[in-house]
Amino acid sequence: MAVNDETRKFVRVTQRGQATLPKEWREQLGIDAPDEVVMISVDDSIIVKPLRSLEELAGRHGDALEEGEAFAKLREWNTEEEERERADERNHGLDAGDGSDP
């Protein structure tokens, strides 16, 4: 993807770690407040994608998963991601920030 004035915006990150997505991008991606997004860390970049509802996902993928199965799968992915983050923190000698010893 070519980086230009349309694909690059500068935003401020607050002391609480919050950043505001530019309005035109929120509108373009259909992100309304309050909504949730998925943030993915890739190398030295952060990818922000709209988090679609189960209804939207079901429409896109048919009835591959029942609602209970879909929630279970999301919980599984979240748990795996948390485990990867803890492993990364241990591998890089960082404190997990929860008061526990590494």
Automatic annotation (TrEMBL):
<dbReference type="GO" id="GO:0003677">
    <property type="term" value="F:DNA binding"/>
</dbReference>
<dbReference type="InterPro" id="IPR037914">
    <property type="entry name" value="SpoVT-AbrB_sf"/>
</dbReference>
<dbReference type="InterPro" id="IPR052975">
    <property type="entry name" value="Repressor-like_regulatory"/>
</dbReference>
<dbReference type="Pfam" id="PF04014">
    <property type="entry name" value="MazE_antitoxin"/>
</dbReference>
<keyword id="KW-0238">DNA-binding</keyword>
<protein>
    <submittedName>
        <fullName>AbrB/MazE/SpoVT family DNA-binding domain-containing protein</fullName>
    </submittedName>
</protein>
<feature type="domain" description="SpoVT-AbrB">
    <location>
        <begin position="8"/>
        <end position="53"/>
    </location>
</feature>
<feature type="region of interest" description="Disordered">
    <location>
        <begin position="75"/>
        <end position="102"/>
    </location>
</feature>
<feature type="compositionally biased region" description="Basic and acidic residues">
    <location>
        <begin position="75"/>
        <end position="95"/>
    </location>
</feature>
<dbReference type="InterPro" id="IPR007159">
    <property type="entry name" value="SpoVT-AbrB_dom"/>
</dbReference>
